[in-house]
Structure formats: structure tokens, C-alpha cells
Amino acid sequence: MTVEIVHVKQLKKSYGTNKVLRGIDFTAQAGEIIGVIGKNGAGKSTFLEILMTLKTYDEGNVFVFDKEVRSLSTHQLEGIRKQISVVLQPTQFYKSLKVVELLKLFKAYYKSSVNIEKIIADFKLEPYRKTYFNKLSGGWKQIVSLAIAFLSEPKMLILDEPTTGLDPHMRNILWAYITKYNKRTGGTVILTTHNMDEVELYCDKVMLLNDGVGETFDTTKRILDSGYKSIHDFYLSKVSM
Ligand SMILES: Nc1ncnc2c1ncn2[C@@H]1O[C@H](COP(=O)(O)OP(=O)(O)OP(=O)(O)O)[C@@H](O)[C@H]1O
Fold first, then answer.
1. How far apart are CA 59 and CA 95, in angstroms?
2. CB 3.0–4.6 Å: which of 83, 110, 198, 234 could bond 228 by disulfide?
3. 95 CA to middle of ligand 1, Å?
4. Domain enclosing residue 96, as ranges
5. Backbone phi, psi, residue 220, to 5°
């Protein structure tokens, strides 16, 4: 049986006169890993922020866990947000804490049963456990932010360009974690990336945002079976500069 986690119908969103989303249809079933792709400025982050319930929209319907986001009270929104994890930009607050302290703090906040030592091992954070967050390099800050996102054992994880700025080993570590989390908990992952190889390797489905609409929304396998050599080729043939 499939369980629908997100259902979007004819979603429209403008910033002033800039019509960014012009009628998006989209669904995410429990357990899917979906890659949202498209050129710079296509509206990927805007779309994800609407799914995170952080941004308002102008027209259409957005259902998350079967609830229409627009009609929810603040209290109901909080209930939904508890089940979603997102990677937000670290705040000033992070700076004064060591990696292990941050993880412990968020574990307590989320009332998570995840083992901190396992997270430290999985994300290769052992050498940095006592390093202050603000002394970490950009890529390691990102890894810590991602580790925090996994701490809550979310039903849905929304990641905006999670691998940008990570070296090849760290990308592999993150993808290994995402796929393990997905298999173990059946959690749904929706992410944006400009790396088409990652989409091809790890995503069940692909949503191509182009000119404000979902030009293609299909399984990675069907796209490849339809004759494209790779998702990279598919992207280049569909999207002009
Ligand atoms: N808060 C905002 N106010 C006004 N315009 C915005 C705002 N956020 C985004 N935009 C505009 O909306 C369009 C889509 O931006 P968005 O960041 O969603 O695209 P993106 O596909 O994530 O881009 P990238 O791949 O470069 O990160 C762009 O033209 C951008 O300038």
C-alpha cells in the first residue's frame, strides 16, 4: 500500500511580478527519495520552502501528511513541522558550542532515541567532537547540520542542496546515511541538487522544474529507459541555458 506524504496541485507562487511557480503538480509517497532539479533560479528552493511550510503560496493546494497547509492553525502547523526535518542555516547560537554538545542538545530537544555515538561514527565526526562549531570548515559545518537534521528521526526530510560544498568522500558518507535512514525508517527524502550523477544513483524519482512548471516528474528508471544515456544527458536535452 502506498501512503501519500505530500500532494501538490497546481501550485502557483510569485514574488511581485516574477511568476516563479506557475502550476506545479507533485506527489511524494512514503519511502521515496525524490530529486528536484532545474537551473539556477528555477524555483527549487521556493518549492521546498513551501513544502517545509515556511513560505506561503498564492494559488493551488499543498497537502502535507494529508492536511492542507493553508488551512492549518499555528498549533496544527507545529504538529506537522515536528515530523519534518530541514537543514536550516546555523545561527549565532551554534557558534559557542562544541560538536558533541550541539548533538546532545538537539537530541534532548527532539526527545530522540538516536545514539549520539552512532551519529558521530556514521558522520565521521570523532576528530571534531570537541571542536567549537564556528572553528569547523564550511563542509564540516554542513555535515554537523545534517547530522542534527537526522537526530529527530523525521518522517520527511527536506534538504536544499545538501551536498554542495562537500568533498567526494563526504558526499558518499551523506548519501550512505540518507539511503540507510530511508531503508531503516521508511522516511521520505525530498532534495535539490545540481549534481545529476547523485540523482541517477540515489533518487527514485526526478522532478524537473522548468519555466515554472514540473516539466518532467517521473521515476529515474523510466527516464533512463526512455532512451537518455544518463540523467545528466536528460537535463541538458530538456533545459536550455
Ligand atoms: N524572498 C524572495 N523575494 C523575491 N524574489 C525571490 C525571493 N526568493 C527567491 N526569489 C526569486 O525567485 C526565483 C527562484 O528562486 P529560488 O531560490 O527558488 O530558485 P532555485 O531554483 O533554488 O535557484 P538556485 O539553483 O540558484 O539555488 C529567482 O528569480 C529568485 O531571484
1. 39
2. 234
3. 28
4. 88-153
5. -60, -40
Domain co-membership, 226 together with 136: no
With the most atoms of ligand 1 within 8 angstroms of its CB, the residue from 11, 20, 194 to mutate is: 20
For residues 170 and 61, state if they share a domain: yes
Pocket (CB within 6 angstroms of ligand 1): 15, 18, 20, 38, 40-46
Is the reported ipTM for this assembly greater than 0.90?
A: yes
With H, G, I as helix, E, B as strand and everything else as coil, classify residue 114.
coil
Q: Which residue has the cell 568522500?
A: 169
Which residue intervals of the chain are DSSP H helices?
Answer: 44-51, 74-81, 92-95, 99-110, 116-122, 138-151, 168-185, 196-202, 220-225, 231-238
The C-alpha atoms of residue 156 and residue 143 are separated, in whole angstroms, by 18
> What's the gap in Å between 188 CA and the centre of ligand 1?
24
Q: Which ligand 1 atom is the nearest neighbour of the CA of 16?
A: 4
How many structural domains does the chain have?
2
Distance 46 CA to ligand 1 centre (A): 6
Encode pLDDT of 164-210 as tens digits: 889 999 999 999 999 999 999 999 999 999 999 999 999 999 999 99
Q: What secondary structure letter does DSSP report for 184?
A: H
